[in-house]
Design a protein that fits this description.
mainly alpha, 2 domains, 63% helix, 0% strand
């Protein structure tokens, strides 16, 4: 991938497209990175079980907040209101700024994304996160929201980034490999530390052992709550 400097993007991208595209590009890059880190931390049942074994309330809350932030972020990117920076605005600007040969492809991609969003992201955003709809409330509601599946959100992210790259190539911006944002986020270190904690519980299962630990290099450790070993 050739990184196109900002100065070159400014020269080649139509003025009406440049500002919303740059704002949207930054937001999508950040949102995609958050999604990747979430998937790496909660990527399988064994990892989730390990997190739950040590701090189920904390990691359950973090996971819920994390997912809701992803849903709201995708809803912003796909917002269909007039005047807000979104995929719809970028496509609308491209309809007048060109190049004309990619406009129909952009419309098709936009419509496909909006249909997929309505089936997943919009329902959760409108009925549960941004607003509380009693019909869908888990304690009193009589209707269920569609499940938020990893595969569905992956398809949304893929469709969004592909559309952005169609615009980028069409105006000389180039492409961005959004899933190449792999900066170290520490989730593997956290999992490793929790696995070591499981082993620590196995080695020192009796409260009396803490008296011995207090004499050595673990003297500054708080006494943890005993937890069941996780895989």
């Amino acid at each position: 991938m050739r990184w196109v400097p900002l100065e070159e993007r400014v020269r080649t991208m139509p003025d009406s497209v440049r500002e919303p595209f740059e704002i949207l590009w930054q937001g999508i890059t950040t949102l995609y990175y958050r999604w990747m880190v979430f998937k790496r931390l909660y990527r399988n049942a064994r990892r989730t079980e390990l997190l739950d074994a040590h701090a189920p309330g904390f990691f359950g809350l973090v996971g819920q907040i994390w997912v809701e932030s992803i849903v709201l972020g995708l809803a912003r990117v796909l917002d269909d209101r007039q005047g807000v920076v979104s995929i719809r605005l970028v496509v609308s600007r491209m309809e007048t700024a060109g190049p004309n040969e990619i406009v129909e492809d952009l419309r098709r991609r936009r419509d496909q994304l909006e249909r997929l969003s309505k089936e997943t992201v919009e329902a959760h955003r409108n009925k549960r996160i941004a607003h509380l709809d009693g019909e869908y409330h888990p304690r009193g509601g009589k209707r269920d929201l569609p499940p938020l599946k990893v595969e569905s959100l992956d398809r949304l992210f893929q469709g969004i980034t592909e559309l952005m790259n169609v615009v980028g190539v069409g105006v000389g911006h180039g492409t961005t490999i959004y899933d190449a944002a792999t900066a170290e986020s520490g989730e593997d270190s956290l999992i490793f530390a929790l696995r070591k904690a499981d082993r620590f519980d196995e080695i020192f299962p009796w409260p009396g052992q803490w008296d011995e630990l207090a004499k050595g290099r673990f003297a500054d450790l708080d006494r943890p709550q005993q937890s069941d070993p996780a895989p």
